[in-house]
Every structure is written in structure tokens, then in C-alpha cells.
TrEMBL record:
Gene that encodes it: cysZ
Organism placement in taxonomy: Bacteria, Pseudomonadati, Pseudomonadota, Gammaproteobacteria, Oceanospirillales
Membrane-spanning segments: 27-47, 67-88, 139-158, 202-235
A cellular component term, taken from the record's GO annotations: plasma membrane
Any GO MF annotation of the entry: high-affinity sulfate:proton symporter activity
Record organism: Neptunomonas antarctica
Superkingdom of the source species: Bacteria
Record family assignment: Belongs to the CysZ family.
The protein's name in its UniProt record: Sulfate transporter CysZ
Length: 248
């Protein structure tokens, strides 16, 4: 596989460093607020409902399997955490998609000096239908693979590699999620976008892996979304704009 995971992770760190810059600071605010509100909601939901959900699923087991409670509790707990995490992430990405696309456009303009019409809120509103359509395409790609991985996680013996597969899958999906914003702004199709990321797969996975880890760290996860959008845009401008895979 081509690419450099350290270089990929570096794009996210550069994204963090650019967040306070005056030219893009105001475009960071709305994705940041959306992330804070939704992740705060997810934390509140877990604090209040976690035990109830896990115990509900355990209560559905036949009585003769009750001796396995000690083994199945962590599995059901992991399932609840995964469901809440990915569920809230999808909602956050769906709501924030137009704002993330707008942020990516401004970062690319600063980075490349490209002349883009400054349409303000009118331009943002025009992005909404296209952004939502693209998010639905990502969900159509993501959900079947998520369900297959869930099934795989419950198959005895082979499920020992499930944590490793979950991490790789999460890293790949984080790369797709955030790198899609600058590529969609430049009319790169969803299929082309996946090919571009696969062209430097290790770089893409390095970027996505650090985003995924950051999403799991309290406080850091609240500011991860805008940093990841900026980092993904830098990845696009530095490595993909001249790719031969892009159909122009």
C-alpha cells in the first residue's frame, strides 16, 4: 500500500493549528457548536440510559443462558456504545454537512489563492441539497459494511480480530467522511473520491485513524469536526488536486 500514515496524521494536526486563524475562525464556529451540542446529548443519553439498555438486552436471553451474563455484558455494552457513537456521528455529519463544505471552501481559498465567489449565506443555502445528497451516498456505502462487521463480531473464534477490523473500518470511514468535503466542492464524484483516497491508502488511514482516536477523547472530540475538515482540505490541496484519477 502506498502512502505514509504519519503524514496523514500530520494533516489533522495542521488542521488544529489553523482553527484560530482570523480568515477561517468564524466559519469554524457553527460546525463546532453542532458537535458540542450533539456530543453533549450523546453523553447525557449514555449516562441516563446505558445500564437500562444493556440490562434490557440481557433480559432477552433464555434462562438457561443466564450463566453467560458475565461474558455477554461487555459485548452488549460495546454494542450500545458503538450504536450511540456512530448514530450521533451520522446525525452530526448530516446536520453539519453544508457548514463543513463551506468551511472547506474557505480553507481551500486561503491555501491556494483560488478566486471563489463570496456568496455568504446565499452560497451556504445553495450547498444544502448537494451536501445532504452526498451524506446519503456516504450512508449507503457505510451502513451495509457496518452491519456486516457487527455480524462478524458475534461469530465465535473469528471475532478475535474484530477490534482490529473495527479500527481499520472506522479510520477508513473517517477519511471518507472528511475528505469528501473538499472533493465534493471540486465536483469529484463519490466513486472518484474513494479511488483518490485508496491511491495513498496509508496516508488516508493515518489521517482517519487519528480523527477516530480524537473522537474518543473527551473535550478533544468536541473540536474534532472542524479540525478534521480543515486537515482533509489541506490533504486535498497538497496531494490530490493534480491526480490523474480526476476526470476533468
Amino acid at each position: 500500500m502506498k502512502g505514509n500514515p504519519v503524514k496523514g496524521a500530520g494533516y489533522l494536526l495542521r488542521g488544529f493549528s489553523m482553527m484560530p486563524e482570523p480568515g477561517i475562525r468564524r466559519f469554524v464556529l457553527i460546525p463546532l457548536l453542532i458537535n458540542i451540542v450533539l456530543f453533549s446529548g450523546a453523553i447525557w443519553l449514555l449516562i441516563n440510559e446505558f445500564d437500562g439498555w444493556v440490562n434490557y438486552w440481557l433480559s432477552k436471553l433464555p434462562q438457561w443462558l443466564s450463566f453467560l451474563d458475565w461474558l455477554l455484558w461487555p459485548l452488549f455494552a460495546a454494542l450500545v456504545l458503538i450504536s450511540v457513537y456512530y448514530g450521533f456521528s451520522m446525525v452530526a455529519n448530516l446536520i453539519a454537512a453544508p457548514f463543513n463544505g463551506f468551511l472547506s471552501e474557505k480553507v481551500e481559498k486561503m491555501r491556494t489563492g483560488a478566486v471563489m465567489a463570496d456568496e455568504g449565506w446565499k452560497g451556504l443555502l445553495a450547498m444544502i441539497p448537494r451536501s445532504l445528497q452526498r451524506e446519503l451516498a456516504k450512508m449507503a456505502y457505510y451502513l451495509p459494511r457496518l452491519f456486516l462487521l457487527l455480524i462478524f463480531s458475534f461469530i465465535p473464534v473469528v471475532n478475535v480480530v474484530a477490534p482490529f477490523l473495527w479500527f481499520l473500518f472506522g479510520a477508513w470511514m473517517m477519511a471518507i467522511q472528511y475528505c469528501d468535503y473538499p472533493m465534493d466542492n471540486n465536483n469529484v464524484s463519490f466513486k472518484q473520491m474513494k479511488l483518490l483516497l485508496a491511491e495513498s491508502r496509508l496516508t488516508s488511514l493515518g489521517f482517519g485513524a487519528l480523527v477516530q482516536v480524537g473522537m474518543m477523547i473527551p473535550v478533544i472530540n468536541l473540536i474534532m469536526m472542524p479540525a478534521a475538515v480543515i486537515g482533509a482540505t489541506l490533504y486535498w490541496t497538497d496531494e490530490h488536486t493534480q491526480s490523474s484519477l480526476i476526470i476533468r
